[in-house]
Protein 1
Amino acid sequence: MLSNKSFVRKTRHGKVVKVVREHYLRDDIACGALFCPTCDKSRAKLRDTALNIVVIDTNVALHQMDLLENEVMSDVVVLAVVLEEVKNKNLSIYNRLRTVIDNPLRHFFVFSNENHKDTYIKSLPTETPNDRNDRAIRVASQWYQHHLGAAKVLLLTNDNDNRRKAREDGIVAETVDSYVQTLGKPELLDLVARSDAMDVDVEDLRPNKKAVVYGEHKVMSEITAGLHNGRFHQGKLRVNRYNPFEAYVGSESVGEEILIHGRQDMNRAFDGDVVAVELLPQSSWVGSEVGKIADRDDEEEEEQVGLVPASADDAPREFKLEDGKKAAGRPTGRVVGIIKRNWRQYCGSIEPMKMPGGSGGTVQALFVSADRRIPKIRIQTRQIANLIDKRIMVSVDSWEPTSRYPNGHYVRTIGDIGDRATESDVLLIENDINSRPFSEAVLACLPPLPWSFSEEEHLKNHAHLKREDLRHIRIFSVDPPGCRDIDDALHCTPLPDGRFEVGVHIADVTNFVLPNLPLDVEASQRGTSVYMVERRIDMLPKPLTEDICSLRADVERLAFSCIWIMSSEAEIESVRFTKSVIKSCAALSYAEAQARMDDSRMMDGLTTDLRNMNRLAKIMRLRRIERGALTLASPEVKFEIDTETHDPLDVGMYQVREANMMVEEFMLAANMSVAGKILKEFPSCSLLRRHPEPTPQMFEPLLRTAAAVGVNLDISTSKALADSLDLAVGDDPYFNKLIRILATRCMTQAVYFCSGELSYPEYLHYGLAAPLYTHFTSPIRRYADVVVHRLLSAALGLSSLPEQLRDMPHLTSLSDNLNYRHRNAQMAGRASVELHTVIFFKKRPTDEEARIVKIRSNGFIVFIPKFGIEGPVYLVGKEAKGSSGSSNDGMWEVDDEHQIIRSTDGSRTFKVLNTVRIRIEVVEPQPNRQKLQLTLIM
Amino acid sequence: MSGPHLDADHELRIAKAQRLLRDAAGGMHSRAFVNVGDVIPVDHEAGYLRGHGTQPVKEELLATVCGVVERVNKLVSVRPLRARYNAETGDVVVGRVTEVGGNRWKVDVNSRKDAELLLAAVNLPGGIQRRRTAIDELNMRDLYVENDLISAEVQSLHQDGSLHLHTRSLKYGKLRNGQLVRVAPYLIKRLKQHFHQLKDLGVDLILGCNGFIWISAASPGNKDNLPGSVATSASAVVGESPLQFEVRERICRLANSVRVLGALGLLISPDSIMQTYEASLLWEVPVKDMLSADFYVKLAEKEAEQRMKR
Amino acid sequence: MTTEYVSPEGLRLDGRRPHEMRHMHAVVGVVPSADGSALFHMGNTKVMAVVYGPHEVSNRTHQLHDRALVRCEYSMATFSTGERRRRGKTDRRSTELSLVIGQTMEAAIMTHLLPRTQIDIYVQVLQADGGTRAACINAASIALADAGIPMRDLVVSCAAGYLNSTPLLDLNYQEDSGGGPDLVVGYFPKLEKLSLLQMDSKVPIETFEKVLELATEGAKAVATFMREKLLENTKTLASARGHLKL
């Protein structure tokens, strides 16, 4: 049966257009009940044993998602009209609803009421779309009652009006609250979201007594008009990680970032929301006062002790001061409206408070998020006693102008505070890392175990792959000690004419991870393996990473090889790529490899190969440095973990030996060769990696510090920088390393990108001084490498390129996801290290030597080389602040240009790069917020 | 097939009438109707001759047009209904001159190609028979010019499909004082006579086999003779009295009857025309309303009734 | 955010399933003054085709001595799309479609039976909602059959596409704008041969095969429908006339 939907629409240019669409009504749509005598049951989900078949309305789906995700809700009918409305209003809720629906154990059924001939309704002339949809919900519920029996079917809605009309129509309807109460599990009530717009049966007739704390948000139409005529500016809000009351809105219309200062001006916007901002008059613009830590608010935050930043993204934001003059001030504004909310679920804990007498009563508590950019959230709970010392997850519902804090509700408990496993879990959740075990579908994609190489299978049956048999070559691998996922192996065979055949063999992961299978989809979403201190979260299941793909010693394994013929001076004469089967003869650790090379008594073939490779590697490295590659000191810290308690026993700087650099050199060379090959074949859809050159502004802090100690750095090109870094030598041996560490903070992040998106000059990898680069050598732990393997295989004509990889938009979104995952994995790794650092120092306050890296008005920042951490040291006590308006109690003077702070009586002077002694200990200034503190030992 | 604009009510009645007509078709074998590409059932062993509208594909005989299967002895052919006029020797046709020159006139007779009327095939004025000279050729225009309507007979069909006409009789020639109505050729049955005189109405009727029907006032000088005498352009009678109103009305009424019959797809013969004419008088339908939906539908119903009786 | 053209419940935007065609409607002989005419509706796409011929060639120089000349002209009414737009007959799309439809029909007409004549086909889109090409060919087919022009077989046409990894039959305008491939097929149902195959955008070969198969199936369904209508029309005409023997 055919019906026509016609409506009138306004196009982008303002023209009014009539749209007519067909709408087919069917009679073959099933009700979805397993016990229904008439309908088709092939996709039915609703069970007879259910107490009620619940039909939900749109608002219930939008606001009560946490309740719906809970297992107690099952045998639920989601109408197509509800699903459509949810999709249009909130995509993330829609995705969550879809996940629940797709899970067969939850027994959620989607009923296509809009296409069923009995439940389709046309909107009445004066009906608004909302009313029409509500009516559709009622009609569908009625149909269900008629079809399955009134006793079973229940309409769940919080809307008073809807409920009243439903009851008039004879439909059984209830509010969420009353329904949950009938289920007999009071703790579920915590999950029920409170919305201020929710209609409670008793209307609150008292006039609104609460004072309005924040300005009202402007109406959407006003905002659009304001954006149009330039009064407002749109952008994403990014809250300063180190000062939650300071935020920036990147705005194209203003040209630079707009600063939002203070809670009032932020006006209930969260980090990540898309907001509309109005600029304040220029006189109110914030000036150079923000060089020190903001102290406007009563709840100020201080700079934290943490790992040394590895790039500009990790370092606290700084404002450049114009040579001591007071800066004109940055454009400052305030938020007038929120265009798109970016709320998610947050981990954290309840702020300690007085416990109520007795239990079971509903209590209001404040939730403090682990991510300091998020404000405190007010929740109601009946089980305060259970939550008080736990890390919990909370979701936000609303934030009224009358309320100081946003309202939210509890979702679930993660574990005890301070418990290492719990804290690690929190880190993972906050960084959006999926640590759940692999699903059945994924594991089903693995080949049957035990797996071993079969010549017939791989050489004969898959002849089209042209796999070479390289089992006779002496191949070995060099990895960190205890490494079980070996993805690369090397060989170096001297040729009779003095040249060398050098090969890099990478685990042939794409042989097992086929495109679009659940295994592949899961890996592409995870993006990378995450390395925490005490555990590793794998991108691929263990059987693959540690056994089947891993190039372990003395077993035959499949590989993808990159083989060069090099002159004795390490010049690449030719390169060839091939799939292969290898048999590694030794899996060495860096220490073992180094020992072999150093031991002049060892003269066996393996050691000779190592020495040859080392020699070649050194030449290659020198050549790279000539070209301008940067060698920056990244102070990686390594923990020694107690095997039983998993507590850190010792922490120290990672030692880089020659063997490390040798392997690294060949990996770089392989990556560069592969990049060249795939770009040639697929100029517009190759996945490459680039490192954008830092802007001069980013180098500012480094240049200032260097100038203060008399070092002149040339930042015009990477080579110039590298050379001037080499020349920056001081009296003490550590000087150069420090300068390099400071240089690291100025770098941008390297990112993946699709070659079609940018032009050739932008492919540059600044740090490696390579015009082209990609990731090829670690497919076991990085998905980008899997993609590059597929590209290379297609470039060699061994297989056809999967459909999505030919599609540029898909590749772009894939590289965005990989960058996101990579970033998150890095942050999680760092956070894990910081966590363990705190645990380590909790029991052992330590005194140690440190170097000053930056001067502040109330102290300085130090770097402790032994542990690889840096943090602030205060010379002025906290109590002294604020009284005289400056953060200095008058005892100290700062010379910013020379980066010196000296006492007014001249007795003590501290200059950047000086050595001082520091005490490291863990303190708990606020309950449940432990942190490291550094104090100067005079 | 659609005539006047029908509203919903009329649509229903017409549909009903059509259904009745179909069912009462009497003796119409359903297998006689074929579509393009349908297989025509033939007895392969007995042998058959393939006629128009068929094509052999592999072992079968397929139809190339939509229509009715005709079997004459062993000749199997498919005749489409609404096609252009397919001439046969001896047919009387009415046509319009499109071109003059080169020893002949080209006449549009609603066929695939225009028909040719050779100079040698017309009767010269005066009725004399002599060899045509060049002068005659130059004087062709005196006989017929472009857009003249003439009646003629099909003399012969040639291999390449071209059609030759002749007007070698007094009854053929230029037509005047009348109205031309065009209908689909298949509605005209081939009869002995195509020239009809409706004496009591004072109207002459020519049913051209090509679907052109000429209705005119009875020519004054030929009450006993055949109508449509050799009138030529040159001999246009000067001062001939204009037709009387009644005659004109009757001509119009007859013309409309023909039109309605054509729109309904009913067979056109003098009888059916007269019946329609009389019905319109009986039902007191003014001439201009004869083309309305009402009359159209009523006529269809009447026809259906009649057929049912048979 | 990608539009869901096929919901997980297996329904498309307008409620059809992937292998279902839109509602079809045809009227034979809508223009009585023409030799053949037809109206063809596929869902909300409505097309009218009118055939004149075979008749004398208007321009002697174009006359072909051994076969008929087939001319086709495609145009869209100004009111056929959502926004009223005047389209000339010489814009690229019209010329392309005129050529395509003309060639497709010419392949079906037995032109060698009608030498030195001309057949004019005029196709006009009255309402466009995706699949205009297919509807035009179908309408022209019926009009030609109505005009009694001998053809090797009826030409039926249908369009299919590929969205959300599902082959979809008979796309409407919304689905057509979805960016997936659009494949149009001109098919001889009895001879089981293709007269026209057109596709835009790139697809891998496996997808292509699936979509082609689907379009062909759709064309067969159209053929059944068209046959029915034509037969009905023939019967009505013949029975109206009465005795059929000459």
Note: Chain B has six helices and 16 strands.
Protein 2
Amino acid sequence: MTHPPTGPSGPSASAAALLEVTGLTKHFPVRGGWRRSGVVRAVDGVDFAVRRGETLGLVGESGCGKTTTGRMLVRLLEPTGGRIVFEGRDITHAKRRGLRPLRQDLQIIFQDPYASLNPRHTVGKIVAMPLVVNGIKPPGGVKRRVQELLEIVGLNPEHYNRYPHEFSGGQRQRIGVARALALRPKLIVADEPVSALDVSIQAQIINLLRGLQRELGLAFVFIAHDLAVVRHFCQRVAVMYLGKIVEIGDRDDIYQRPAHPYTRALLSAIPDVAQPNGRALRDTEEAGGGAAGNGPAGRIRLTGDVPTPLNPPSGCRFRTRCWKAQEKCAVQEPPLADIGGRGGALVACHFPETEPLR
Amino acid sequence: MTAAVIPETPGAYTGAAPYLQVRDLSVRFATEDGVVRAVDGVSFAVERGRTLGIVGESGSGKSVTSLAILGLHDPKRTTIAGQILLGGRDIVGLDEESIRRLRGRDMAMIFQDPLSALHPYYTVGRQVAEAYRVHHPDASWREAHRRAVEMLDRVGIPQPARRANQHPHEFSGGMRQRAMIAMALVNNPELLIADEPTTALDVTVQAQILDLLADLQREFHSAIILITHDLGVVSQVADDVLVMYAGRAVEYGTAEQVLRRPQHPYTWGLLSSVPSLHGDPDADLIPIRGNPPSMIHPPPGCAFHPRCGYALLGSASTPGAAAGACEVDVPQLRQVQERGHTVACHLPEGKRVEIYRRDIAQAGVVR
């Protein structure tokens, strides 16, 4: 069913890879009810690599397995299969003691800044916790390091003794970032770090993370459903659909020369203020200059919803919503392959698109 | 406070009286910590066949406005002032029974989360049929059921007769939202209020639902209010746009005016802080500094001034300007040169146009 792991995928996965993931799989057993039990194939054979200081975006719709993948990377979930190699060490099944040093290098930022901070701990305690738990005594003391961290993320170091409820959503997310930075990690998994925030605050947090990435040389796995946010943060992008990576490549390839029909559909579905295909705006602009309007391929509308990962379609999983699907797609699963003309980007499609977007 | 200027409806093209007219609406809640002015002197209008997008962040008062229109607020804690004219009739202060008769028949609502808005115990068909029977007491269940299946079909649910006998949990997120739209439209309401109707949905499904709403509007010719924090969504479907901040309208006009020639610094901030698929991806986003204000103790003067990069503050650094106007006076919505476009800002219009051209349009996000 799954194609054999092809090893580090693409030329971008050079020897300097910080994190290498091959054939990563997570199946959740489903029991009970009158229906026969089965497995949810949440992640089903995923390969990618992240280099030092690189930002990889994992994008896709709900149920595509992006969050499950992220949680396996920081080992909050035990993989069913596949390998996770961090700095040359296989950490796929590392146990508690083996995980300790790993926790310092690998951190996670959660989506919900309200649920991920203990309401009964002060900010100082929350941010100090990783240091205390790992028995680290920074020069100058824990308190000084914590205040330093608060300053780095743009919070007032004097707010050390305050509680989470005294902060707004954006500020809470900053606390989460400070906590993730406490151990000077090499890689941060950020799971939808801005999607719970107001738009005016989202930009603050994205800019903060970008600054940290540049200054501290951090690598990120940035999990998001919003392709526009990912475009502003990530150098490389992997598009997931129903537990599989359908396309992976450098940002410009994914956004300017997307080859997978699903990537095209996702890009086309984003309502973009700067793109005048809105009703009112389009009308006026057509009236104004007799503009060409949208080409026939300009607007792609997928029908239906994402199928259940309990029983994914045979062959290519996207075929049930794909307008290009043919018989072959139902029979044969397309492997992730380089179709050429792009900087090593890979796509899993029997009939990839080759025309660049306008 | 002087009575707010009632802005001209941006889309008053047909000459007909707008179906919904909201005039100087204020909504106050009594809370333990004090009175919250959730909505403060907001006026707008929506004609049949047009869509008004109300944009704002959490706490801007956009949802409270819609609940007040539908009479869904808690009357014990809420004080409503101003006028809400529905088809020419003021519905502020109507008794519960009269409002109930309007709700569902003349105006209907689509909520953000269809799973909590649908009853888990009853079949989807039964719930839609019931919504029909509330306003058609003479209709038999069979007739109502037939009507429900017809509506489910109309909103694009495949095999509607079979699906009508299923429960909400058997529907996917997008299908549930379609079912809720079917329920809202079953009585052909003239006003449809959609509060973040696509926020809980995936982008590809969101696109379907937005298209569906536009199609249904063409067919039923209803007035639609779309409440959202997402400027992208607004740009796709709205004819007119009202931008709210801290309970007040700060900018109001056609989508073209507000999104292409915005004049309020908050609108600029929203537009430049949203990441786009166009423009330079390596350029930093331009966030709005600070945090949204407390609604119990909103800042004096213009509520946006502590976050505004162009506020006229009381210092010698802004010669010629009325000292600290933004800190003292609450700006009213005023007509700009272009007809139908109103902005609540103390900066002179010429200055705003200049700042927009120089600082905002250049940033590449907004064209």
Note: Chain A touches chain B through 48 residues (CB under 8 Å).
Protein 3
Amino acid sequence: MKSVEFQAIYIMWLRQMKRFVRSKSRLVSSIVKPLFFLFIIGSGFRVATFEGVDDYLSFLAPGIIAMAILFSSMFTGISVLWDKQFGFLQEVLVAPVSRFSIIIGRTLGGATVALIQGFIILLIALGLGVKISGVFGLLLTFVFMILIAFTAVGFGLVLASKMEDFQGFQLIMNLLIMPLLFLSSAFFPVTANPTMKTISSFNPLFYRVDGLRGSLIIDTATVNPPLLDLLVVLVVCIIMMGLGSYFFSKSEV
Amino acid sequence: MDIIKTNNLTKNFDDLTAVDTISFSVKKGEIFGFLGPNGAGKTTTIKMLTTLLHPTKGSAEVAGFDIIGARDKVRRNIGVVFQEPALDIELTGRENLEYHARMYGLSRDKRKTRIEDVLNLVDLEDKKNVLVKNYSGGMKRRLEIARGLMHYPTVLFLDEPTLGLDAQTRRAIWNYIGKMNKEEGTTIFLTTHYMDEADFLCDRIGIIDHGSILVIDSVTNLKNSVGNDVITLSCSDMVKLVKRLEEESWISNIEQHDSFVTLGVEKGEEKIPVIIEIAQSLNIRIKSISVRKPTLDDVFLHFTGRTMRDQEATNTTRSAPPRFHGRMR
């Protein structure tokens, strides 16, 4: 790859960082919203007992981290729509840079932002006394976090390429992402209900949450071993990034 | 040398033909203008030439490279200022230029000096660290023109560069465009639906309507084609008068419109009494008569048969230049 392409990737990444740091409302809400989930749901469900869950906060924390990364990354993918509406996308597309580099730059930028948010929540969770499993588990957690971010940016890109405005995005969020999130075991275990467990095995979000939980938390109830989750998550990630790149490169302005 | 050359370039959107087999060429170093009402196919042509849209049929070369086969090389050689602002408003003016410079692979030293250069050219030096969302419309346009020039393009495309700007700012932008054409030797391809703009800036003009080019020529030749002077008159019986005037050989062209007639003549002042005499001999009462130098308005009218005054009547905003309605993107 030529150095021009690296320059382009770098400046696209830098743009996302600058925008993120400058957008105070996005910064605040992207951190406060997951914390609300963590504290409110955390203290609400704490009194309930789930099979195989000793410490509910330790169970919930990985789910919230996954959720924060998912939302933030999807937003990055979908923000291509903003650039389309503000005309900036034309400036990007007319530059002598390959479409592939444009997607890489955007994905890296979005993933970095999402990971920063994920880490802040992780630190807060650690401060609250969530029991983590050790160095290897932590490294595996980072891998999961990165993969979740990439997959969600890819999915966002697919949506942004196929949609003209933000109404469709709201619909997808409410009718697809929220149910999938509830069925991902992010907030409660799905093992108790056999129907739910079957449905979850077709839910790509489930493997992300399950894997993140299995690698981060010690002694917890996961359905699959983390490495099996990792395999599924990796495959889905590659497919999503591929689809995102394909649809984006086909889009005209 | 031809810097842009198109060959039967065509673009269809579903069953609508936005650009219909157009062929033209633009010479190196000139300012070439595409003049036509909104929806004529100007923006679509620019988007094809700047590799953002795939032509349905036909081909084109920009700076010697094919717009389909060598898209990257074309992109490297062009600068574009789009019709709608294409800036990141959350970044400062300088950062927008920095972004552009890196996308085009300028080296560190070159970035630094070039950003200063183009900022000076458009007088935005003192506003460079202000977020673009706090810029006025005119400042945004100037920044975009500066950005389009950053990477020393061979051709600069300007799509309606002064759309929606006030008279003073338009003047300033015209000066910048003229300056960079002279100082940097950049070939400029611009579209506009403002006659005065094309008149002021362009060396040659192509008049485009309904996706087809009606005529391409120099501004002077186009004006001459409608006569050295234009007499506009309205009277009680236009049909009868026009029929009589058609017998006169000194009138180079006669056009009858809804409420007025235009005549292309030499030495217009001397012809007015003659026309009045003819009218009186036919018992036709002249309501008004005037003589003036031809403008591109007349040229447009001559070639399209459409008057902009009709369109203007529905235009309640009293913007100085005549404009068309029914924008199409």
Note: Chain A has a mean pLDDT of 87.
